[in-house]
């Protein structure tokens, strides 16, 4: 049966008990979804909430990227609430309860760490543990196809890397970065040579092929392509903001400038960053 809130006096007491922890959050969620709860929360489904779940996960990653530790607490809470929301909707439909979610992940962690919770040898490197983890996951999948289970909703670059890792485990992989770089050059040439004769759909397909090989290069270099691109986005934003600052000092905006001037201002912003980095390094060396 779906979980309903506690009787109102007990529910009110729990909802306002700041020390009640997880029980409080679960009761809040049950109250929000109850017949007399919040109309918006009541009408939500797994499909309508899923985009918010992805958004909250990205906001957690963003706080970590910016080392905004005060914000991270709140962002993790938002993400936890998404799990509670999905679990409540599942309970409303008689599918499973939040306690089942907790049990499932706890069982999985114990099963996938036999060197910690079992009698396997604990003398493992992180790389060996990663390899063993993947072997356990493969055994859990049983007879499933190699690429089954790689979530479609992952960011495209992340999913590309995961697909490539799966294929590499069964030997479908270039032996070194040299072959990957050659493939990148080949795909780039094909795209440039064919851009004027291909349809829009074909150009998009060729461009996708190029991005897929770039993701493969990231994997070979042990670089997270999503993190690398986020960092590049941040750098671009920071430097373009400086271009606007320089122009604003003359009472102008970017549309009042031209590419040549803005390119020169971009280089000026780069030079500023380099000088600031050198000063920071000198200070660090002095302190150590």
Automatic annotation (TrEMBL):
<dbReference type="GO" id="GO:0046052">
    <property type="term" value="P:UTP catabolic process"/>
</dbReference>
<dbReference type="InterPro" id="IPR048011">
    <property type="entry name" value="NTP-PPase_MazG-like_C"/>
</dbReference>
<dbReference type="GO" id="GO:0046061">
    <property type="term" value="P:dATP catabolic process"/>
</dbReference>
<dbReference type="InterPro" id="IPR048015">
    <property type="entry name" value="NTP-PPase_MazG-like_N"/>
</dbReference>
<dbReference type="Pfam" id="PF03819">
    <property type="entry name" value="MazG"/>
</dbReference>
<dbReference type="GO" id="GO:0046076">
    <property type="term" value="P:dTTP catabolic process"/>
</dbReference>
<dbReference type="GO" id="GO:0006203">
    <property type="term" value="P:dGTP catabolic process"/>
</dbReference>
<feature type="domain" description="NTP pyrophosphohydrolase MazG-like">
    <location>
        <begin position="180"/>
        <end position="240"/>
    </location>
</feature>
<dbReference type="InterPro" id="IPR011551">
    <property type="entry name" value="NTP_PyrPHydrolase_MazG"/>
</dbReference>
<protein>
    <recommendedName>
        <fullName>Nucleoside triphosphate pyrophosphohydrolase</fullName>
        <ecNumber>3.6.1.8</ecNumber>
    </recommendedName>
</protein>
<dbReference type="GO" id="GO:0047693">
    <property type="term" value="F:ATP diphosphatase activity"/>
</dbReference>
<dbReference type="InterPro" id="IPR004518">
    <property type="entry name" value="MazG-like_dom"/>
</dbReference>
<dbReference type="GO" id="GO:0046047">
    <property type="term" value="P:TTP catabolic process"/>
</dbReference>
<comment type="similarity">
    <text>Belongs to the nucleoside triphosphate pyrophosphohydrolase family.</text>
</comment>
<feature type="domain" description="NTP pyrophosphohydrolase MazG-like">
    <location>
        <begin position="44"/>
        <end position="117"/>
    </location>
</feature>
<dbReference type="GO" id="GO:0006950">
    <property type="term" value="P:response to stress"/>
</dbReference>
<dbReference type="GO" id="GO:0046081">
    <property type="term" value="P:dUTP catabolic process"/>
</dbReference>
